[in-house]
Specification:
By secondary structure, the protein is α+β, with helices and mostly antiparallel strands. The protein folds into 2 domains: 32 residues, no CATH class; 105 residues, no CATH class. Helix content is 41%, strand content 14%. The chain is elongated and about 60 Å long. The termini are far apart.
Length: 152
């Protein structure tokens, strides 16, 4: 399947316009809303916080949690960043009746990896980061995740 096979990724598309279909942008105009668009922007163009040399997703930052990870024996700074910055793709929506397909999760993970890498490069041009998505077939849906850390 091609990455841009949107009829496969969004099975609702071909049913629109009396079966003639619709493109993703038209579909969003028909069923989306501004509040969702604003909410999604925080995932696709995330905000970061810089704290004690760490670069962390602002939405995930909690100093007490960070300090707890620092007390874990043997963890390096990069490992702490990776665990705090990870995002399980299946957690973006909690609707248990509509499980995302593997193709949907892998497509979204690839896009998020690119978005996060671009945003980190824009916000921290003097630093290097590893942005990782486990783009493998046949994983449990909860195992598809994106994370990042500063290169050491």
């Amino acid at each position: 399947m091609a990455d841009d096979d949107f009829n496969h990724l969004i099975p609702d598309l071909p049913q629109w316009n009396d079966g003639k279909g619709i493109d993703p942008e038209g579909w969003i105009c028909g069923i989306g809303n501004m509040e969702l668009a604003i909410g999604y922007s925080t995932i696709f163009w995330p905000r970061f916080v810089e704290f004690d040399g760490y670069v962390l997703l602002r939405a995930h930052f909690d100093e007490e949690n960070l300090r707890g990870w620092e007390r874990s024996p043997g963890l390096r700074r990069a490992q702490i960043e990776a665990v705090i910055n990870h995002l399980h793709l299946a957690d973006i929506h909690y609707d248990s009746t509509a499980q995302p397909s593997e193709a949907q999760l892998r497509y979204l993970g690839r896009i998020l990896r690119e978005c996060i890498a671009a945003k980190l490069k824009q916000d921290f041009p003097e630093r290097s980061f590893e942005v990782v998505f486990n783009d493998e077939p046949d994983l449990d849906p909860t195992d598809y995740e994106v994370t990042f850390w500063q290169s050491e």
